Amino acid sequence: MDDLGEAASEESQRCLSLVAARATQTSIVDVLEAIRRIERGTYGICELTGKSIPKARLDAIPWTRFTVEAQAQLEREGALRQKRLGALGPVDSAGAVEVEEEDEVEEKPAKEKE
Model-level pTM greater than 0.70? Predict the structure, then answer.
């Protein structure tokens, strides 16, 4: 009986760990995309309307891509998709995890950019 309870507890902990990892993954992608916008000179510009995103919103959510109004519109339309680094899974023999790309141009790995 203890084994069954222990197995259930371990499975529950594993599920919580996966949820936390996915949330962390999403946050990393959001920050990396904000850095790319800084590099391109488009940081602080709404991707939907082209208007400036108010400083107060950027202070609250530095990685935001949209004004409050544009975000609300996109959420109503169901147009926002979560981007993520890739499926959680085992690391291959080269030590890299496959990355899932969505609507972005493939970039060279950091080693090749040097």
Answer: no
